[in-house]
Each structure stands twice: as structure tokens, then as C-alpha cells.
């Protein structure tokens, strides 16, 4: 068995991080065939070395989205086979009458965790290929692993992965709570001090699920609801008073009333 680290170049760039100072040998930029810009924001594969381990540990211990920029791959066979497999994994294809390709940002562990929850056993074996264990960290710092499901000689989906319309809908729906989290912090950066990263993700997932149930699509109202959930540690969604405010409309005055309510009922 061998180990290698997978990095998400887009998240590294977002945080102003590069690999230039590490002088790591055999670094593979898996989108290099698509040009320099794509290579810099695509997945990056590092063989296991003390320097790579130290860099990965600095990412997973961060209290921000750097935590999702790395994972550990335990694999069989040569490194070249792993590189080839991951290069083929870059697309997700639909099974619609007119199939469409989507870039699959599998090196971002927020995306990967959602994907792992929607694939079938056959697709999971195709997703992993030579990888016997894909290890990563959840928002609450829990260590998670994905391994090929049995039986050992079970059918394997070919790449690119092909997903049904219902799988694609579930994948996209469950991925979008990250967009709500980013929008909330963009509008209310002071909320970053509320709770730790795991709590922020859990609260946003709670708000996102409730918004879906209520069929609320107004972006400003979604942010207000998530802000209230953060401020009240989830209690807002059990308050008939707050829910009534949310249901009264989306004009600026109503949004401000809901925001005032959440500030008044914020947990100290």
C-alpha cells in the first residue's frame, strides 16, 4: 500500500497558498493538460513525504475552509496509475437523453462528502479505482473514510461517472448549503466569530434544509434565516414568531424585522 495527498488548488489559491516553497518532487497538477490556469485551481497530487504531511496537517487543523482542501489516499499499484485514475475522474456525466458533462471538484472534501452520499456501490467502486481508502476531515474535525464496498469482485462503473437525474438533483441540492454559508459570511462577516467551523456548517445545513422544505428561494431571505439560526444556535426555526416574520414577505422592511428579531434573541 502507498499513500498520497490530494489537494484542491482552488481552495489553496483562495487562501493565498502555494506549493512553491515546499520543493516537493513528483507533484502532479491533474488539470495541466487544460492549461496553466486550470492546473493551478484543479486537483493536485503529492506523494507522501514529511513535507507533504506537515502541509496537509496545517490545512486540516485550520478553522476555515482550508480544512477541506486536502485528503489522504491509500492506494494499490504505482503512482502513475493513481494519477491516470484521478484524471479520468474529472467529469460527472448525466444519464439524460442529452447527456451533459460537469467538472467534478472531487478534491474539495465538502463536495466529495456529498458525492459519497449519493453514489451506488457500483459507482463507488468506479470512483475509487485503485484507492483502497480515501480519508478526509469533516467540518467538525471528524475523520471520515470511504472504502470500496463489498463484494470484492463486485461490478465497477466506468469513468466518467454517470449519474441519474435524481442523483444529480440530490448531489446539487445537498452541495448548495456551502453557497448559503459563504453568502451569509459575505453579508455578515462578524458572524464568523459565532461558534466553530463545525457548528457553522451544522447550523447552515439546518437552515438550508428548512428553507428547502419551505420552498424559500429569495437569496436575501435565505441569508436572514441562516443568520438567525447562527445567532440563536438553531432555536429560531422553532419560534412561531420568527417563522411568521419570515412568511410575511421579502421586502427590505420585513427582512430587517426578522434580522432585529434574531439579534434580540441571540445566544450570548
Briefly characterize the structure:
This protein has 268 residues and is of the alpha+beta class.
What does this structure look like?
This protein is α+β, with helices and mostly antiparallel strands. It has two domains: 2-164, no CATH class; 177-264, no CATH class. The chain has twelve helices and nine strands. Strand 5 and strand 6 form a beta hairpin.
Instruction: Kindly estimate the percentage of residues that lie in beta strands according to DSSP.
Output: 15-25%
Write the H/E string, N to C. Answer: EHEHEHEHEEHHEEEHHHHHH
Total beta strands: 9
Strand order of the largest sheet: 2-3-1-4-7-8
Contiguous low-pLDDT stretches (5 residues minimum) are none
Q: State the helix count.
A: 12
Give the domain tally.
2
Distance between the termini: 49 Å
- Specify the structural class: alpha+beta
Tell me the overall shape: globular
- The proportion of residues forming helix, as a percent range, comes to 40-55%
Radius of gyration: 21 Å
Rounded mean pLDDT is: 90
- Largest pleated sheet: 6 strands, antiparallel
Topology:
Layout: E1 2-8, H1 9-14, E2 28-29, H2 36-41, E3 43-47, H3 50-60, E4 70-75, H4 79-88, E5 91-94, E6 101-103, H5 109-116, H6 121-128, E7 131-137, E8 143-146, E9 161-163, H7 165-175, H8 177-187, H9 197-214, H10 219-232, H11 240-247, H12 252-264
Parallel strand pairs: 5-9
Antiparallel strand pairs: 1-3, 1-4, 2-3, 4-7, 5-6, 7-8
Amino acid at each position: 500500500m502507498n499513500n498520497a495527498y490530494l489537494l484542491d488548488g482552488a481552495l489553496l489559491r483562495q487562501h493565498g497558498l502555494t506549493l512553491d516553497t515546499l520543493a516537493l518532487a513528483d507533484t502532479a497538477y491533474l488539470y495541466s493538460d487544460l492549461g496553466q490556469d486550470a492546473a493551478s485551481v484543479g486537483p493536485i497530487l503529492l506523494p507522501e513525504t514529511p513535507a507533504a504531511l506537515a502541509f496537509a496537517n496545517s490545512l486540516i487543523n485550520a478553522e476555515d475552509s482550508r480544512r477541506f482542501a486536502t485528503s489522504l489516499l491509500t492506494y494499490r499499484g504505482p503512482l502513475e496509475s493513481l494519477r491516470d485514475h484521478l484524471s479520468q475522474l474529472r467529469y460527472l456525466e448525466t444519464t439524460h437523453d442529452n447527456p451533459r458533462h460537469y467538472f467534478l471538484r472531487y478534491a474539495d472534501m465538502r463536495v466529495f462528502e456529498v458525492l459519497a452520499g449519493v453514489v451506488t456501490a457500483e459507482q463507488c467502486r468506479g470512483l475509487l479505482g485503485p484507492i483502497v481508502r480515501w480519508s478526509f476531515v469533516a467540518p467538525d474535525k471528524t475523520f471520515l473514510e470511504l472504502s470500496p464496498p463489498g463484494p470484492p469482485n463486485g461490478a465497477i462503473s466506468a469513468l466518467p461517472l454517470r449519474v441519474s437525474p435524481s442523483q444529480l438533483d440530490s448531489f446539487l441540492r445537498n452541495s448548495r448549503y456551502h453557497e448559503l454559508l459563504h453568502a451569509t459570511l459575505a453579508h455578515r462577516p462578524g458572524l464568523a466569530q459565532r461558534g466553530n467551523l463545525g457548528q457553522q456548517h451544522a447550523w447552515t445545513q439546518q437552515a438550508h434544509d428548512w428553507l428547502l422544505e419551505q420552498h424559500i428561494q429569495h437569496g436575501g431571505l435565505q441569508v436572514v434565516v441562516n443568520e438567525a439560526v447562527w445567532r440563536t444556535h438553531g432555536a429560531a426555526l422553532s419560534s412561531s414568531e420568527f417563522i411568521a416574520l419570515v412568511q410575511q414577505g421579502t421586502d427590505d422592511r420585513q427582512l430587517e424585522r426578522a434580522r432585529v428579531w434574531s439579534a434580540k434573541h441571540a445566544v450570548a
